[in-house]
Known about the structure:
Layout: H1 6-20, H2 28-39, E1 46-50, H3 61-69, E2 74-75, H4 84-96, E3 102-108, H5 109-117, E4 124-132, H6 141-145, E5 165-170, E6 173-178, H7 180-188, H8 194-202, E7 207-208, H9 209-213, E8 226-231, H10 239-249, E9 252-256, H11 262-265, H12 267-281
Parallel strand pairs: 1-2, 1-3, 3-4, 4-8, 8-9
Antiparallel strand pairs: 5-6, 6-7
Helix pairs in contact: 3-12, 4-5, 7-8
Amino acid sequence: MTSSSPSRRSALAFAAAVTAGTVTALTPLAQAAAETRSGSGGTRPTVVLVHGAWADAAGWSTAVGHLQEAGYPVIAPAVPLRGLSSDAAYLAKLLEVTPGPLVLVGHSYGGAVITQAAAGNDRVQALVYVAAFIPDAGESAAALAAKFPGSHLSDDPAAPIPTALQPVPYDGGIDLYLKAAKFRDVFLSNRLSTQRAAVLAATQRPASTIALGEPTQAAAWKTVPSYALVARADRTIPPAAERFMAQRAGAHTVEADAPHAVHLTHPETVVRLIRRAVKETS
C-alpha cells in the first residue's frame, strides 16, 4: 500500500480536528472584522450582510464601504443558495467563529437565512430586514412571495415555476435564474440603467427551488429586536407582503421609494437603518 504524503496527512489531520471541534480558527472574513473591532475599541458589533437570490456579496460593496468608514466591523459572506436549512447552518457556523456581538442584515431570501441562523444565538443583538422575507416557522419564501399580489416574477399564477425564472437542473436539484430580459423590471423596477442591469443579470447567483421552497424551522425575530426596510416599488416581493411580515414581527419599519435591490439603489438608506439598529440595541 502506498503511504500518503506528509502534506496530505497534515491536511487530513487538520480537517479531522476541525470536524471534531478541537480547532477553532477565524475565517478571513471574521479575522478582518475582528481587526476592525480592535481598531474601534471593541465597542461595536460586527455587521453581517447576507445577500439573497439573483445577487451576491458584491452587491453590498457600497454599504460595506460606508460602514467601514464609520468604524464598524463588517462581513458579507457568500451564501450557497442551495437550501434554507443548509444555508442557515452555514451562516450559523460562520457566526460561531465571529467574535463579539452581532447585527445580522438580510436582503430578500437572505432575510429567511438570518431568521433561522440567529435562532438560539444570544450574541445577535438585532436583525435588519432589507426588502426581505421575515418568515415564521413553517413558512417558505416562495409561499410568502405569493401571499399578496404585486410581484412581477410571474404572469401566470398557475405556472409551476414563475415565468420570469429560468430553471437549470443540476445533480440533486434545480437552480432558478432570473431571466436577463426580466431582470431590470423584476429586480430593479427599471431604476438602474439598461447597461448596469445587463451586468447584474450576467453575474447573478441562482437560488435552488429547495432554498425558496423549504419551510423555515425557527424564527429568531420572536426574541431578537427587528428592523425592516419596505421597498415601495418592489416587483419581486410585493410591498404589501413586506409590510405584513414587518408588522407581524413587531419590526421598527421604514419605507423607501425603491426597487427590490434597494441596497444597490439606496445604500445610504440601508446603512442608516443598520446604524439605527446598532445604536438602539447596543
